[in-house]
Amino acid sequence: xxxxxxxxxxxxxxxxxxxxxxxxxxxxxxxxxxxxxxxxxxxxxxxxxxxxxxxxxxxxxxxxxxxxxxxxxxxxxxxxxxxxxxxxxxxxxxxxxxxxxxxxxxxxxxxxxxxxxxxxxxxxxxxxxxxxxxxxxxxxxxxxxxxxxxxxxxxxxxxxxxxxxxxxxxxxxxxxxxxxxxxxxxxxxxxxxxxxxxxxxxxxxxxxxxxxxxxxxxxxxxxxxxxxxxxxxxxxxxxxxxxxxxxxxxxxxxxxxxxxxxxxxxxx
Length: 268
What we know:
Layout: H1 2-50, H2 73-79, H3 84-87, H4 91-100, H5 105-108, H6 118-139, H7 148-151, H8 157-167, E1 169-172, E2 178-181, H9 184-201, E3 205-207, H10 209-215, H11 219-228, E4 232-237, E5 243-248, E6 259-260, E7 266-267
Antiparallel strand pairs: 1-2, 3-5, 4-5, 6-7
């Protein structure tokens, strides 16, 4: 009799455990569903703010991006006088600058600019100058961020101030000193904007190995950056046997769906 009672009690306990487990699982699933929904909305919002504005309804490639989303009119006006040296440079100057590491390779490999139209040439040179400043910022060591004037010699003040306002944050440390930092999201935004400006400069077909070397970003990660904006990325074999990685954008622009992985990480 005692064994039967103990067995009955254990059986009831098991049923309670099962009911409790089932209820617990249902509640957990409900919580996870709410959390995933919130995470998706938060990630989509974050994702959209990191990418530059993209006109998916554009009927011409030139209308996909607006250059003023990267370089303001004030910055462009300030940059134009600085393009004089680049406009008059020869291949000899380019070789000297390469030895001095004065500009990123992405810029040097596109000099001298041979566009005959003077206004268009100046605009292209201003864009090249600006992307060189962006590369300088994304590769700057954390401890050097606060020395923004020293990090950008011979650069218009409006350009430096705008770059810092868009891609860095300032806060007061425990010692009372002002700290300048670049968060992971700000760095991702800066890389996205570098990639988009490179597309504009190269008429939406960019060989991006140079950008990888200039920024220190792995080719796979930079390819993902281009794909986020609707680009296709391919590796083409040249006649000398070397491989060239190309990112190209075509119409209509099709942005990839946002995929949420467990743990709150996103992948496009």
